[in-house]
Write a structure and sequence with these properties.
430 residues, Cathepsin D, subunit A, domain 1, 6-stranded mixed barrel, 3-stranded mixed β-sheet, 6 helices
Length: 430
């Protein structure tokens, strides 16, 4: 998911395939749920086209304290390509009244933990308040809508890692929709339920330490651009500036150790899809024996993890690795769009290969080839939920979203922005 601070987020395309994915319930049974992509280049699938070789890295076992399993499967609502983990939240300063919530989407394109109110008992999680005494709420804006709810404090545990103190998280949908300001809360529908999201919440673990940063902390920019609102008594909500320590925070940046980045490791899957896939989320980079920086190339990015100097089809684009997007999303008029059944996805008559040159804010450049099969072909098997060659259209030509299909068979690295404390600048790698 891409929040207000970032340019693009296309979780909404997930909804286009709900009718297909809900046909049957499939258990997530580990591994890739199928063969690696290189074994499925049959003539009937390629139809005269070709696909690039699929990457073949296998995730490490999620047995260490700094790891947690990632599952792609039917999940909450049968939405394809949603990677999920389990998260535990506790009231700040205690290990009592802790709650473990499953099916939380792993999203490297956003920052901070957001939980749907219906799956968590919020009574023990205190609402964050401003100096004025007003309750703090947030409207996190996405390309397809928004999430609205209070900011609360919780100690967050993922795998064997725990935040050192209570951090701000968003509770989605715990305020009446009528309290959402008509101006400043984004366009499109409210995504305030698990059904809307296709998950019970969002674990944003991209490169930024908070979800808005200086834009929302500075009163002059917050006046028109803050996604935070002061709500006296939970009503009459008005946009407000919020200091960094009260902004929804990236939990992985607040662990006691292993807090400088994450590695998302997904298994290879068949080019025709797989019923499920199980990967590993690794916390920390170069902090333990199981998390070396073994990327073939790394790219310096802006705070949001974007590679703004990348080039696709002769046009400069902002490229990003986003596990919260369930397909590749980019603009390409040479690719046929699907009919209304799969609106927004590409349905080329034969298998296609496209290349993008990724360029970091440093001098690193690398060409990456991706494969594309017709969404109609892929969705023909309604029991599959993991796809490595699904692609769709993005509005405009300035962004290139390397969504979850890019992650299969790869280790994707995210180095957190630690410049505020004199540490390293953000980077991504694979």
């Amino acid at each position: 998911m891409r929040t207000m601070q970032s340019a693009v987020k296309l979780k909404g395309w997930m909804q286009a395939v709900l009718a297909v994915a809900l046909v049957s319930l499939v258990a997530a049974c580990g591994g890739g749920g199928g063969d690696s992509g290189s074994s499925n280049n049959s003539s009937s699938v390629l139809n005269g086209g070709s696909l690039p070789p699929s990457p073949t890295q296998q995730p490490i076992a999620a047995t260490a304290a700094n790891t947690v399993p990632i599952t792609v499967g039917f999940g909450v609502k049968g939405v394809i390509n949603i990677p999920t983990v389990s998260v535990t939240v506790c009231p700040p300063g205690t290990t009592s009244n802790c709650q473990t919530i499953n099916n939380i989407q792993v999203d490297t394109g956003s920052f901070g933990l957001r939980l749907v109110s219906s799956v968590v008992n919020t009574s023990s999680l205190p609402i964050s308040t401003l100096a004025s005494g007003a309750q703090l709420a947030e409207c996190a804006t996405f390309a397809d809508g928004y999430t609205w709810g209070t900011v609360r404090l919780a100690t967050v545990q993922v795998g064997g890692e725990t935040t050192t103190t209570g951090i701000p998280i968003q509770i989605i949908g715990d305020l009446a929709s009528s309290t959402a300001p008509p101006k400043g809360c984004g366009s499109g529908p409210a995504n305030n339920t698990a059904s809307d999201l296709g998950a019970n919440g969002i674990l944003g673990i991209g490169t930024a330490p908070t979800d808005c940063g200086a834009t929302c902390a500075n009163a002059s920019t917050a006046a028109n651009n803050s996604n935070y609102f002061a709500c006296p008594g939970g009503t009459s909500c008005a946009r407000t500036a919020v200091p960094l320590n009260q902004q929804v925070a990236n939990p992985a940046a607040h662990f006691a150790t292993d807090n400088n980045g994450v590695i998302v490791q997904m298994p290879p899957v068949s080019n025709t899809g797989a019923s499920s896939a199980t990967g590993t989320l690794v916390f920390g980079i170069r902090t333990q024996s199981n998390n070396p920086l073994a990327a073939a190339q790394t790219f310096a990015t802006d705070t949001s993890g974007d590679m703004t100097n990348s080039v696709y089809s002769g046009t400069t684009v902002t490229a990003f690795f986003d596990s919260g997007s369930n397909a590749y999303f980019f603009a390409d008029n040479s690719l046929a769009l699907c009919s209304s059944n799969f609106a927004g996805f590409y349905c080329p008559s034969s298998a296609q290969t496209r290349s993008i040159t990724l360029a970091g804010l440093n001098s690193t450049k690398a060409s990456v080839s991706i494969g594309i099969l017709s969404a109609a072909t892929l969705f023909g098997n309604s029991s599959n939920y993991a796809f490595n060659d699904l692609a769709g259209q993005i509005g405009g030509s300035s962004s290139f979203d390397l969504g979850l299909p890019f992650f299969y068979g790869r280790y994707v690295y995210y180095g957190f922005d630690q410049t505020a404390s004199g540490g390293p600048a953000p980077y991504v790698g694979f």
